[in-house]
Amino acid sequence: MVTDPQLEEILAGLERADGRGALQSAILALRKHFAIDHMVYHWVDSGGLQQGCGSYPRAWVSRYQERGYLRVDPVVRGCFQRFQPVDWKRLDWSCRAARAFRAEALRHGLGNQGFTVPVRGPNGQFALFTSNHSCDDESWARFAAKHRRELILIAHDFNQKALEFAPVCQHAPDKALSPRERDAMSLLAVGCSRAQVAARLSISEHTLRAYIESARFKLGALNTTHAVARALSHGLIMV
């Protein structure tokens, strides 16, 4: 329950929002209320289409889409495997692509700290609600501890309102997944490694690879992460 009068007023405005422009106004008001550099709502659909609103610089948003950074963004990849909010320091930034991505984001004006709430809606809908700021680790830890509960509630409220303006869902692929393919995709969706999935299904990793590749082909996906996203969005698997 929100008890801050100013925040209550902003959320009341969010409830009255009648279009995406109103969502943008609401998220900018939230950013100002929490006194941080950026706040962003990011929706990714099964086909890779990205929508959202927030305060990231337009140059960075355009660069992100042009370069296809959805495929390497540790925040998207990490939160897709989680159901709980995550501090960016807990994500894997060790590979060269992730480090280069982070360096470019900082050059475009993003902060070095982040707290992201993953949100899942009906039919596998997946979105992220992110708070981003430039400060030291101790200051950010205090901010996250103080506002964690509020940010989680706001993320789900924001997503619920955004669903009202969502485009019509795409039709599911013509080729249905087999029971084994659904099992494999479901376990990958909840964050199991390939070795764990193979052990759970009592099959070899070689056989598992065949199931994954078959599912990926049926779903028209570019890679395994994309295949899981498409399966969730089309309601072919449940997590």
From TrEMBL:
Known PROSITE patterns for this protein? Answer: HTH_LUXR_2
Q: Which organism is it from?
A: Sulfitobacter aestuarii
Q: Name one Pfam family in it.
A: Autoind_bind
Q: Which UniProt keywords apply?
A: DNA-binding, Transcription, Transcription regulation
What is the protein name given in its UniProt record?
Autoinducer binding domain-containing protein
Whether DNA-binding counts among this entry's keywords is yes
- InterPro entries, from UniProt? Sig_transdc_resp-reg_C-effctor, TF_LuxR_autoind-bd_dom, TF_LuxR_autoind-bd_dom_sf, Tscrpt_reg_LuxR_C, WH-like_DNA-bd_sf
- Record-linked SUPFAM superfamilies: C-terminal effector domain of the bipartite response regulators (SSF46894), Pheromone-binding domain of LuxR-like quorum-sensing transcription factors (SSF75516)
Instruction: Quote the CDD domains the UniProt record gives.
Output: LuxR_C_like (cd06170)
| PANTHER family assigned | DNA-BINDING TRANSCRIPTIONAL ACTIVATOR DEVR_DOSR
Q: Which Gene3D superfamilies match?
A: Transcription factor LuxR-like, autoinducer-binding domain, Winged helix-like DNA-binding domain superfamily/Winged helix DNA-binding domain
Statement: the UniProt record of this protein carries the keyword Cell division: no
Domain HTH luxR-type: where?
170-235
